[in-house]
Amino acid sequence: MKIATWNVNSLKVRLPQVLEWLTLNQPDVLCLQETKLQDEHFPVSEIAAAGYQTIYSGQKTYNGVALLSRQPVSEVFTGMPGFEDPQKRLLGGVHDDVCVVCIYVPNGEHVTSEKYQYKLRWLAALREWLREMLSRHRKLVVLGDFNIAPEDCDVHDSKLWEGKVLFSELERAAFREVLDLGFIDSFRLFDQPEKSFTWWDYRMMAFRRNMGLRIDHILLSRELAGMCTACVIDKATRRLERPSDHAPVIVELGGSVQEKERSAGSEASIRVSANEP
DNA sequence: ATGGCCTTTATCAAAGGA
């Protein structure tokens, strides 16, 4: 099972890239953020033509999240119960037996901004809600644009970013508190290239100079982490003409013991048949 | 050097993103 997240920075602009990306990567689930579309304008039929069902929660101009999937999603939810928020930043549901939560954490603007306080409130509400979700779903994935670089190695220049929004202590502490509920940062389950990032500013030739941050994440419950066989950042998509400023992140699941044995068995049988005269 | 770019909006300048 392949699950991915991508902040597209306007689905209207990026729709051709999204359709191309689906064809190329064949994910089971793709979560989108910053669709910036009201629900009545969501391109349901174009995405259906590519073989994907959709759930979405959008608004005019800002925010907006969506979940594209091969199989239908059940138990669909939008927003967090008990946290009234006109900004459309969260949705999810159960795909196969995996509960998927797609999030677009507030940016925060600046550490002295009222929007920063909103970001911290939003993250506290997320933590408490996820605590409850974990008690109900052993297979839970929380993915999206967290707008937080968790560690020094997730920032191209940690001295420069010290204390700044996206890397401030309070944001990083909030991220750790979510992990402490029992989530694993899938990207760090594997050896990764040095200076791996998911976002690069459009300005300053930041992408060419790899001046980025790793702020898009895929967090897995322990049970899913045990099945995870890969997590990669799709940097190639950031190189396209007229790109989003974020690159997609992809996890591969299904590495349970049974799955591994099954795939090892089929490889062996292929090898045997290939050796036959 | 405190900007640079991109997207949106009852555009043509300003806000927001990160």
Automatic annotation (TrEMBL):
<keyword id="KW-0479">Metal-binding</keyword>
<feature type="site" description="Transition state stabilizer">
    <location>
        <position position="147"/>
    </location>
</feature>
<dbReference type="GO" id="GO:0008311">
    <property type="term" value="F:double-stranded DNA 3'-5' DNA exonuclease activity"/>
</dbReference>
<feature type="binding site">
    <location>
        <position position="245"/>
    </location>
    <ligand>
        <name>Mg(2+)</name>
    </ligand>
</feature>
<feature type="binding site">
    <location>
        <position position="145"/>
    </location>
    <ligand>
        <name>Mg(2+)</name>
    </ligand>
</feature>
<feature type="binding site">
    <location>
        <position position="34"/>
    </location>
    <ligand>
        <name>Mg(2+)</name>
    </ligand>
</feature>
<feature type="region of interest" description="Disordered">
    <location>
        <begin position="257"/>
        <end position="277"/>
    </location>
</feature>
<dbReference type="Pfam" id="PF03372">
    <property type="entry name" value="Exo_endo_phos"/>
</dbReference>
<feature type="active site" description="Proton donor/acceptor">
    <location>
        <position position="145"/>
    </location>
</feature>
<dbReference type="GO" id="GO:0046872">
    <property type="term" value="F:metal ion binding"/>
</dbReference>
<dbReference type="InterPro" id="IPR005135">
    <property type="entry name" value="Endo/exonuclease/phosphatase"/>
</dbReference>
<feature type="binding site">
    <location>
        <position position="246"/>
    </location>
    <ligand>
        <name>Mg(2+)</name>
    </ligand>
</feature>
<protein>
    <submittedName>
        <fullName>Exodeoxyribonuclease III</fullName>
        <ecNumber>3.1.11.2</ecNumber>
    </submittedName>
</protein>
<feature type="active site" description="Proton acceptor">
    <location>
        <position position="246"/>
    </location>
</feature>
<keyword id="KW-0460">Magnesium</keyword>
<feature type="binding site">
    <location>
        <position position="147"/>
    </location>
    <ligand>
        <name>Mg(2+)</name>
    </ligand>
</feature>
<dbReference type="InterPro" id="IPR037493">
    <property type="entry name" value="ExoIII-like"/>
</dbReference>
<keyword id="KW-0378">Hydrolase</keyword>
<dbReference type="InterPro" id="IPR020847">
    <property type="entry name" value="AP_endonuclease_F1_BS"/>
</dbReference>
<dbReference type="InterPro" id="IPR004808">
    <property type="entry name" value="AP_endonuc_1"/>
</dbReference>
<comment type="similarity">
    <text>Belongs to the DNA repair enzymes AP/ExoA family.</text>
</comment>
<feature type="binding site">
    <location>
        <position position="7"/>
    </location>
    <ligand>
        <name>Mg(2+)</name>
    </ligand>
</feature>
<dbReference type="GO" id="GO:0006281">
    <property type="term" value="P:DNA repair"/>
</dbReference>
<dbReference type="GO" id="GO:0003677">
    <property type="term" value="F:DNA binding"/>
</dbReference>
<feature type="active site">
    <location>
        <position position="104"/>
    </location>
</feature>
<dbReference type="InterPro" id="IPR020848">
    <property type="entry name" value="AP_endonuclease_F1_CS"/>
</dbReference>
<dbReference type="GO" id="GO:0004519">
    <property type="term" value="F:endonuclease activity"/>
</dbReference>
<keyword id="KW-0464">Manganese</keyword>
<feature type="domain" description="Endonuclease/exonuclease/phosphatase">
    <location>
        <begin position="4"/>
        <end position="246"/>
    </location>
</feature>
<feature type="site" description="Important for catalytic activity">
    <location>
        <position position="216"/>
    </location>
</feature>
<dbReference type="InterPro" id="IPR036691">
    <property type="entry name" value="Endo/exonu/phosph_ase_sf"/>
</dbReference>
<feature type="site" description="Interaction with DNA substrate">
    <location>
        <position position="246"/>
    </location>
</feature>
